[in-house]
Amino acid sequence: MSIESFMNDAISPWMKNEGPESDIVISSRVRLARNLQHIPYPIIAKENQLGEIISQVKEKYAGQNHIKFGVLELLQMNELKENEKRVLVEKHLISPNLSRETKAGAVLLSEDESLSIMVNEEDHFRIQCLLSGFQLDESLRYANDMDDWMEEKLDFAFDEKRGYLTSCPTNVGTGLRSSVMMHLPALVLTKKFNRILPAINQLGLVVRGIYGEGSEAQGNLFQISNQTTLGKKEQDIVEDLRSVVSQLIQHERAARESLLQQSQILLEDRIYRSYGILAYSRRIESKEAMKRLSDVRLGIDMGLIKDVKGNILNELMILTQPGFLQQYAGEALLSEDRDQRRAALIRERLKLELAD
């Protein structure tokens, strides 16, 4: 398989678009947690009860054509290979928890993979809409459209006082989690991010790594999301997040300008050293690759690197993960083999840019 065909098949179509503020905001996501009336939550439900939900999904939604998302495809966890599930996690289409569900876990996917509906994870349904750049309102609108479409055929658990009922009390109410993935290298380099972090937490938001709760921040990529769902309207939750993200964008732009004015030579040296390592290394670990890719992306966005497209970080932060490397290789790989494959894939990707 060539690198071109692998990239075309591997990258979600929505990731290839550049949304608003895409030099800093990688993606926007809205997720709605929903459960059915009269069926226990997945954490305590029996296998036959979870199987009943899968049967309803097959009957009512799998293969159906949605006006916005097209035909929905159902993937069941017990029918997938381990590496296939790992790839779905790396593409943020399912959670690590769902990938470990061997009895009745599944996911409904849209054609462009901007929509994924996890079935029998922590809740019966988790409707997730992903868009490129800073598009929280659009993500909320699309997620609500799917929520309404599903509720035409299903009876979701809802309480007049508490709102939507969920497995975890922190999701009760709207059941909404909104988040953005942000690239904030200048705030990290100027050591301002750690000073901003407490203020973000005080506003009821949480900062996590690229795979959400419990994951490590890599490549100066941070996921920022709401913590509170009860007692707030959906639009207010999204507006609070949008306000904080807008301020972070301004701070990041100011930090980039400060680096350019006060430390341009040091900044250029860092960026081009990282570019050189990516262009010529024969083995590279995942964490270092993310760090170097972050530097190169910063150089592109600041106009210091002219001949490489800005979405290279978006692509390679997915393509260089273990699951994708093994899919590209067509076999299971040891850690050392993955490091070699990762370096080779990055070199090939950069050569494609220079050839265009």
Short characterization:
It catalyses: L-arginyl-[protein] + ATP = N(omega)-phospho-L-arginyl-[protein] + ADP + H(+). This protein is α+β, with helices and mostly antiparallel strands and 356 residues long.
Please describe what this structure looks like.
The structure is a single chain. By secondary structure, the protein is α+β, with helices and mostly antiparallel strands. It folds into 2 domains: about 5-255, Creatine Kinase, Chain A, domain 2, CATH 3.30.590.10; about 265-355, no CATH class. It is built from 13 helices and 12 strands. The strands form 3 sheets. An 8-stranded antiparallel sheet has the order 4-5-6-7-1-10-12-11, with helices on one face. Strands 2-3 form a two-stranded antiparallel ribbon. A two-stranded antiparallel ribbon has the order 8-9. Strand 2 (about 65) and strand 3 form a beta hairpin. The longest helix has 29 residues, at about 235-260. The chain is globular. The two termini are about 20 Å apart. The model has no long low-confidence stretch (mean pLDDT about 90).
